[in-house]
Design a protein that fits this description.
Elements lengths: L1 H12 L10 E2 L4 E4 L4 H13 L6 E6 L5 E7 L1 H8 L1 H10 L7 H9 L4 H4 L1 E2 L4 E2 L4 H10 L4 E6 L2 E7 H12 L2
Parallel strand pairs: 2-3, 6-7
Antiparallel strand pairs: 1-8, 3-4, 4-5, 7-8
Helix pairs in contact: 2-3
Length: 174
Amino acid sequence: MTVGINLALSYCMYSEKTVKNYMRSLDQYCYIDEDENIQKALVAMNNIRKEGKDQCLVVLGAGPLEMEIIKGFVTPSELVFGLLSHFLKGVQRSGPIFWEGQLETECLEGVNKRVGEIMLSIKAYVRENEMLMEAVFLLNKYKMDFLPVVRNDEVVGIIHLDDILKEICGIILK
């Protein structure tokens, strides 16, 4: 009986972890407009990589009533696969064919695409007062690493899978 009571008491001692305690503020990110080309995104990504910052660009664009809103994210994955999408689509039809200088050729052909063509669109958001498990659920459901965090329908931050992993490590590896 005492073991059950002790277990119940220790469970009650845990505080609810909310998204606002783990989200990153918007000023920690670099922004790019959805109409910019991939070359500009590469320059921005290279700069933030050198600074040791999170390798994620927040993509802005026009929303309802021409207000600027967050439309998506660009990570190294979107840049690489977006630049090389012409090759990757061809592989699906005929199988891979490789030649010398192919990487350079494909990159030069893809560099003028719009950021909006390659970005990871926002499929969901989480409210800042939701439990951290809500963010875990949504990140898994939509197969994303980032979620916008909102307060009163305004984006106030971003929750990243790495932030949740850091908390999990803290819990498990105490």
